[in-house]
Amino acid sequence: MIDVTTIRKDFPILNREVNGKPLVYFDNAATSQTPQQVIDVIVEYYSSYNANIHRGVHALSQEATDKYEQARITIQKHFNIAKSHEVVFTSGTTHSINMVANGFGALLSAGDEIIVSALEHHSNIVPWQMLCERTGAILKVIPMNLEGELVMEKYQELLSDKTKLVFCNHVSNALGTVNPIETIIKEAHKVGAAVLIDGAQAAPHIKADMQALDVDFYTVSAHKVCGPTGVGMLYGKEEWLKKLPPYQGGGEMIAEVTFEKTTYADLPHKFEAGTPNICGGIAFGAALDYMNTIGFKAIATYEEELLEYATEQLLSINGLKIYGTSKKKTSVISFNIDNLHPYDIGSILDKLGIAVRTGHHCAQPIMEFFKIPGTVRASFSFYNTKEEIDTLVAGVERARNMLL
Amino acid sequence: MTIDKIQEEIIDEFSMFDDWMQRYEYMIDLGKSLPLIEQEFKTDDHIIKGCQSKVWVHAKLQEDKLVFTADSDAIITKGIIAILIRVFSNQKPQDIIDANTNFIDEIGLKEHLSPTRANGLVSMIKQLKLYAVAYQTQLN
Ligand SMILES: Cc1ncc(COP(=O)(O)O)c(C=O)c1O
Fold this sequence. Notes:
The structure holds 2 protein chains of 2 kinds. By secondary structure, chain A is of the alpha/beta class. Chain A has helices at residues 4-9, 36-49, 59-78, 93-104, 126-135, 152-158, 181-190, 210-213, 238-243, 278-294, 296-315, 342-351, 364-370, 386-403; strands at residues 17-18, 21-22, 24-25, 87-90, 113-117, 138-142, 163-169, 194-198, 217-221, 232-236, 254-257, 262-264, 320-323, 332-337, 354-355, 357-359, 375-379. In chain A, the strands form 5 sheets. Chain A has a 7-stranded mixed β-sheet with strand order 4-10-9-8-7-5-6, sandwiched between helices. A 4-stranded antiparallel β-sheet of chain A has the order 13-14-17-16, covered by helices on one side. By secondary structure, chain B is mainly α. Chain B has helices at residues 3-15, 20-33, 75-88, 93-98, 102-106, 115-139, and strands spanning 55-62, 65-72. Chain B has a two-stranded antiparallel ribbon with strand order 1-2.
């Protein structure tokens, strides 16, 4: 059970006003808010043990290294990862995806195929397009249906022994659809393809088990799970991380350097060139600890309640249409009203202190599919309330009346 | 009326509103009443970049004055354009080039727009001035 009144006390930002109105934060899919417990960890890092890691002989460096490595283990446990060196700290999902795409550059040849889903964040399609340009590999797309679900029969047809890599998000950021990644992974493995799942949108709602999923790569951004921005993880199976060449050269990632030859450091350091976001990594661990204290089961149950309530209330508004109507979705509602521009609705909501996202949500192919310029997206977190949803619904009604 | 005079008028009008909801309502009304651009000009080469919504602008010279028509797929954006057109349309190109745009700050338009819309506003003004420069060259 979620005690939302108590939980809200953990988030100082929820007390602020915007445009003279109490903030209603419904842009959680873009970034989550940070609880005091995580803010404290950040403050503590800079006020008591800020030091560079893995290299100093002094006490502070040791302390920082220990805390950073502890965070890696927290992440490992959270995602039930077999070995801690399969957790690579990155600057976030985008970085993680680029790392894998770049690595596969060395493993692909012309005519190989990469499958991506039609539900992708478009910035995540770009690395694969670049990879295809570089290697002569071919990009294939799993189409979606009107509910915003992937058409799995088409996926089966796309798979062949030419398929080398499948890339799909666990949860779509634009529509909230939870994709059947278990099947996607299993079927890809049957043809010997590797699978990279983008878990950026799933991580705040679903505790994914890497060993049970048997996924090859999985990515997460800390800022979507109550952690800071600019830090995240790449999970990679040991065998894959060993196979991939490093992404960047620099300190931390080498074992021995001469001008003739450099040998790379062991995992995960091979992929962690340079001084990392140490404080961010530690805070990432603290953020997962915080969410686990609340509990992912309780979070899921409560968010489902919010989703159901908001769906029902919003649909009572004349002319409102929801995009993404899969039965399996997270607490995200993408909608439009008649022909009103989502940007207009979002601007008026902002004046009422309500933060939503408007636009194409970095998923232009999805918007093209529905033939719309974008949507208004409200995304709910475990610290949101039904009263806030009432405020949203009233705000949307008001916007509708002003604009129509 | 001169550009300066029109700007003063707009500043006066905006000062009558108590809050930003009223200002938005006013801009929405302006947007609704904006004379539309002819369909033939609603093409990609008339689109202004830098807006989350689409904005089309067309300019033509009538005698020695520049006349702007414009449209957008978002109504608040249309309201903003309507204000800009009121200031800059039917003016001599050189006056448009020389015009200052203080009124934007005085009515607090920029700070009350989302960052993308504020960027859009800047590119809109830039575009109108560019048209003026182009036509001024033609007149010379
Ligand atoms: C599905 C998905 N993938 C990737 C990203 C990018 O994450 P980041 O900006 O943290 O790299 C996002 C964030 O919006 C997302 O929603």
